[in-house]
Write a structure and sequence with these properties.
The complex is a heterodimer.
Chain A (H helix, E strand, L loop, with lengths): L2 H21 L2 H27 L11 H20 L8 H5 L5 H31 L6 H29 L3 H14 L11 H7 L3 H15 L6 H31 L4
Chain B lengths: L3 E13 L4 E13 L3 E5 L6 H8 L7 E6 L2 E2 H4 L2 H5 L1 E5 L14 H11 L6 H11 L15 H14 L4 E5 L7 H16 L3 E6 L2 H7 L2 E6 L2 E6 L1 H7 L2 E9 L4 H7 L4 E9 L4 E8 L5 H10 L3 E8 L3 H19 L1
Parallel strand pairs in B: 3-8, 3-9, 6-7, 7-8
Antiparallel strand pairs in B: 1-2, 1-4, 4-5, 9-10, 11-13, 11-14, 12-13
Chain lengths: 261, 330
């Protein structure tokens, strides 16, 4: 094969094809730009918060390592709910035409994801966290947190999937979710490191309250009557109900309009 | 209504889009008795898949309704798939990737388990595999199966649910003739066992081989319906095949001028001469007229036969009629 032919193939595939794939849809183009800006912002705020220890105490710890490890651990714990969703638009008719409850299909997928994809990671981070930090946990708060956290994650998953059913656009919604999570959740840096207007937006993002509650439960023995825990409880219940509503709306949208147009 | 598995009552489906609406089904009505095999024949975009989705409760009708075993589909919705209908959409079906490296028998058992099928799964999987003719391959991995075998395995999965009605959307699309015939035989066997089958297809031979009743669907409308025999009788045309010697393509032009001949369907040079197939109005063209025409041009008639039109021919005539009607309306 001629070198020229190979170079042309690479040019078409990597440059022309790559450019087309990223710019063919406005939403995808915007998502690409947003993800670029987001990664810059994320690393900036991580560095900023760690160097100046800014806002970490708000989460019940003064250890940047404890802050980061607990954030990553919680993300790994909730990831199966947020990332593994089998009732996709592509398989919509196949899966819904099986005489089985879709709830069971979701449960199978989530448990399978825990066992095969995130279980080892969770154990690893939990062991490192427990061995390097002074944890101070009230069991009843932890159990209540787990129950509410599951509820919130189911709601979040249903919310995202419902939006995909409504808009039929998976990629931009995936990016929007990633962006919101990294910027506003407090997973990797405290929301107090954000400029004030963004901090206010962060208060509306349900996972912000999840990370606050999670860290305070781990590091400062938070009780279930703590205002931050109550805020987390409200956020969880709201997210669950919102997710359920949006998912039902999305399903009805496809039921009414089909996947033809 | 009691012996009817499916009753479709003035069904409409209009897809509403941003730029335009598409009418997929227009005022469709028909019924399928229990144990009957009904075929929906139509070209691409005729509304066949839409009909399957509505009957399975996965798509809302715009107007009208359908009754599955006497229950209104607008109330049943997705429960239709839990109680009555095993839906097989060839374009949407896929093997469950987690299990494709299990032997076929174990694959079906595993699918049965994750889908909560009650009872002895091994026995049910064995029966399903035997029914679709894959028993010999029960110890082979589905990942190594040919496309036709994979289709059969997916039909076997559908059978595991043991529901009384099978709705199959183009079950043999993209399959070779041998695989098609194998699947037809499986379906024939299932019909013999008492399953009610509604299948959509573009394959006339398939419809003729399998169906008790055929509905021709075009642009969302039923343009004709009946048993294969009734449909063939429906048309006032017949097919005349004439082989003349020596080779002469001019003969086709002369034949077309005879009163009663409406269309030359085929002209082909064969070894001993030329074969001309013409469509004519039944009983209008006498054999002697054709023989004399050949003689007058110095040709010898080697073969002359009158045949009933095939379903495929009838379908083409119906579609052509629809097109002409639309043009007239325009």
């Amino acid at each position: 094969m001629k070198v020229k032919t190979v170079l042309r193939a690479i040019w078409y595939y990597c440059f022309i094809g790559g450019w087309k794939a990223r710019t063919a849809y406005k939403a995808n183009f915007a998502a690409n730009i947003a993800s670029l800006l987001l990664s810059v912002a994320t690393y900036y705020f991580i560095g900023y918060s760690i160097i100046y220890q800014r806002g970490i105490v708000r989460y019940g710890t003064d250890s940047p390592l404890g802050f980061l490890l607990s954030g990553i651990l919680l993300t790994r714990i909730v990831n199966p709910f947020r990332l593994y969703f089998p009732l996709t638009v592509r398989d919509f008719y196949y899966l819904y035409s099986r005489p089985v409850s879709p709830a069971l299909i979701l449960l199978q997928e989530w448990i399978s994801a825990y066992i095969w994809f995130t279980g080892i990671e969770i154990t690893l981070y939990a062991v490192i966290l427990a061995s390097t930090q002074n944890l101070n946990v009230r069991p009843e708060s932890l159990f209540a947190f787990i129950a509410l956290c599951i509820l919130m994650n189911i709601g979040y998953n249903l919310f995202e999937s419902g939006l995909t059913y409504i808009t039929k656009k998976k990629t931009p919604i995936f990016f929007a979710r990633q962006a919101a999570h990294l910027l506003f959740s407090g997973e990797l840096f405290p929301v107090t490191a954000l400029p004030v207007p963004l901090q206010q937006i962060a208060l509306l993002y349900p996972y912000t309250w999840t990370y606050i509650a999670w860290r305070k439960i781990l590091f400062s023995a938070m009780t279930i009557t703590d205002p931050d825990f109550i805020a987390f409880t409200i956020a969880s219940l709201t997210m669950f109900l919102l997710g359920l509503t949006v998912f039902k709306t999305g399903y009805n949208e496809i039921y009414k309009k089909g996947l033809v147009l | 209504m009691q012996n009817k598995a499916i009753v479709v009552d003035h069904l409409w489906k209009i897809y509403t889009g941003r730029e335009k609406n598409i009418v997929a089904l227009r005022d469709i009505s028909f019924s399928v008795s229990k144990g009957e095999v009904v075929g929906i024949l139509g070209p691409n975009g005729a509304g066949k898949t839409t009909l399957c989705l509505i009957l399975s409760g996965l798509l809302e009708p715009t107007k009208g309704t359908a009754y599955i075993m006497g229950e209104d589909i607008r109330e049943l919705k997705r429960k239709a798939c839990e109680k009555y209908i095993a839906l097989y959409l060839a374009e949407h079906m896929r093997l469950w990737s987690a299990f494709i490296r299990l032997p076929a028998l174990k694959y079906l058992e595993a699918i049965g388990a994750i889908r909560c099928i009650e009872g002895d799964l091994k026995k049910k999987a064995e029966e399903a595999l035997k029914k679709v003719g894959l028993w010999e391959w029960r110890n082979e991995w589905p990942s190594r199966f040919s496309t036709g075998m994979k289709r059969k395995l997916m039909i076997a999965e559908t059978l595991m649910y043991e529901l009384p009605i099978l709705v199959l959307d183009e079950p043999t699309v993209h399959l070779d003739p041998i695989s098609c015939m194998e699947i037809w035989n499986i379906l024939k066997e299932l019909a013999h066992d008492g399953k009610t089958i509604l299948l959509t297809t573009q394959n006339m031979e398939e419809a003729e081989y399998l169906c008790d009743k055929i509905l021709f669907l075009n642009k969302g409308r039923i343009v004709a319906s009946g048993s294969p025999h009734e449909l063939k009788e429906l048309t006032r045309y017949e097919k005349i095949a004439v082989k003349v010697s020596p080779k002469s393509r001019e003969f086709a032009k002369l034949l077309e001028k005879i009163d009663g001949v409406t269309e030359i369907m085929q002209v082909k040079d064969v070894e001993e001469g030329t074969l001309v197939v013409a469509k004519s109005i039944k009983g209008c063209v006498e054999p002697s007229t054709i023989v004399e025409l050949a003689k007058s041009t110095g040709l010898k008639v080697l073969l002359l036969s009158y045949e009933q039109l095939s379903l495929s021919d009838i379908f083409r005539i119906l579609l052509k009629g629809e097109e002409n009607e639309s043009e007239d309306r325009a």
